[in-house]
Amino acid sequence: MKGDILLQNVQVRGFVPATAGKNAKEDKKKIRNAVETKLGKNIGNVRERCKGKPLSVNVVFYLQKDTAHAKKDLDSLSNVLLDVLSEEMSSKESEPGLNIINDDSVIYRIVFEKKIVNSSEEEGLTFSIYEWAYS
User: Fold this and answer.
1) Which residues lie below 8 Å from residue 23, measured CB to CB, with a gap of 6+?
2) Pseudo-torsion of CA 62, 113, 51, 132, nearest 10°?
3) SS3 assignment, position 54
4) 3-state secondary structure of 100
5) Between 63 and which of 8, 70, 125, 128 could a Cys-Cys bridge form, CB atoms 3.0 to 4.6 Å apart?
6) Full pLDDT tens readout for the chain, 135 residues
7) 3-state DSSP call for residue 49?
8) Where are the alpha helices (DSSP H) in the chain?
């Protein structure tokens, strides 16, 4: 059951959501920058509101039809976003994440969805984070 909205409808479009490899680092930076831009000075408030609470994460991946990346599995696609939301996006390169979800164990529900789009400009992702409310 969804509780309070902690971060809603963050959209990052115009890129192919990566799963790993050379594009993953750049995609992580695009997502991080988009979230930082959307939140601005409120990022500290979002971090505080998410801290230690049970969370629910909803993600929609937009992938261009008739392409190889439209066949990517949701589990692999989600890793890039979860890395960005954590304290460090990459432990190998000490690249800072957003530190919104600093421990994956607080995530109690994740909803992933793929939507097929017609153009590369529409590709990307949208996500929201809610406080998870037990029923």
Assistant:
1) 16
2) 150
3) coil
4) coil
5) 70
6) 567 888 888 888 887 777 666 677 888 888 898 889 888 889 999 999 999 899 999 999 999 998 887 888 888 888 888 989 999 887 676 788 999 998 888 999 999 999 999 998 999 999 999 999 876
7) helix
8) 22-39, 43-50, 74-85
